[in-house]
Structure formats: structure tokens, C-alpha cells
Predict the 3D structure of the following.
Amino acid sequence: MIEVLIVSGLLAAAIITVLVIIVRRLNTTSRRRAVATADRDQAAFEQWLDLQPSDAERQLALGELDEIFTSGRIGQPEHTERVTMIMEAQTNREAQQALEELRSPDEV
């Protein structure tokens, strides 16, 4: 009877050890995938910055600028200047630069 308990305990310990190893490998694989995805996302974002902005992207940038203006963080002359910058932007990078320094740190 005691031999059965010992064997059962050893078997349970072996199963737990195998499960721990499997979970650790899955976590490592998940972290590697997350890093690879972040790298791909960054590369795609860099490519997007060099594209010409669409009307929808300009509207999003203008909407963000209007929120900043409405909150009182910039005045009318600066708002007008930045609207012009966004509308004349040849790339998404130029449009984003018009907003970059106005964004609060938690928006970046």
C-alpha cells in the first residue's frame, strides 16, 4: 500500500515537472512572438510615415489638433499654422510632426 502511495507521489511530481517545463517554453515562445510582432509593427509604422497622407488621415490629424485647441493648450494663431502644416504635408511624417510636440506624454 505504501509503495503505491510513493509511486503515485513520484508520478504526480513528474507530471508537475513536465507541465512546468511546457508552460515555461510556451511563455518563452509567446515573448519571442511578441517581440517579433512589435518589430514588424514598428517597421510598418516607419513605412507608413513615408507615405502621402490620405484625406482620412488628414482628418484624423486635424481632429486631434482641434481637441488640443479646444482644451486651450494652443491659441488661434498656432492652430491656424498647424492646420496649414497638416494640409500641406507631403508625407504622414510631416503631418505627425505638426502634432508631435503638442501631444501629452501619455499619448505618445
The helical segments are 2-49, 55-70, 76-88, 92-100.
